TrEMBL record:
Key word Cytoplasm present: no
An annotated GO BP: response to amino acid
One CC-aspect GO term: cytosol
Classification via SUPFAM superfamilies: Dimeric alpha+beta barrel, Winged helix' DNA-binding domain
Organism: Terribacillus aidingensis
The protein's name: Lrp/AsnC family transcriptional regulator, leucine-responsive regulatory protein
GO molecular function: sequence-specific DNA binding
HTH asnC-type domain location: 2-63
Length: 136
């Protein structure tokens, strides 16, 4: 079970995973070595599994943000999954879900034309329900 200090460490790392151990220690009232030891323990216990960066997709030229609820046409999902592998430049996440649909596909596109081309090709494999993100 995590104590309050471990929770604080996780919150601070979520805000800025590049924080120095000295800065982190000051924020959670520990020495730098004690903060580093706590992080090592969280990693060893697989509480912290990795560190990542946030990318501004708009600035990369992918301003069109979509979610597609995917409905497979048959029990074999492999054709759809193989298609998605060929479109990784657009795919952010592909979640297998229960409830409405089989997958929730999150994508980013540089233009409406690219989205339309993707949807036309996607329709060969699955049916879908499209949602476009208006604001975050």
């Amino acid at each position: 079970m995590l104590d309050a200090t471990d929770q604080q460490i996780i919150e601070e790392l979520a805000k800025n995973s590049r924080i120095t151990m000295k800065e982190l220690g000051e924020k959670v009232h520990l020495s730098a070595p004690a903060a580093a030891a706590r992080i090592a323990k969280l990693e060893d216990n697989h509480i912290i599994e990795g560190y990542s960066i946030r990318i501004n997709q708009d600035n990369l030229g992918y301003p069109l943000h979509t979610f597609l609820t995917i409905f497979t046409k048959n029990t074999s999902h492999q054709p759809y999954l193989a298609f998605i592998q060929t479109k990784q430049q657009f795919v952010v996440n592909n979640y297998k879900i229960s409830g409405q649909g089989c997958y929730l596909l999150e994508c980013r596109f540089p233009s409406q034309a690219d989205l339309n081309q993707f949807l036309n090709a996607l329709n060969d494999y699955v049916n879908y329900n499209l949602s476009i993100v208006i604001d975050k």
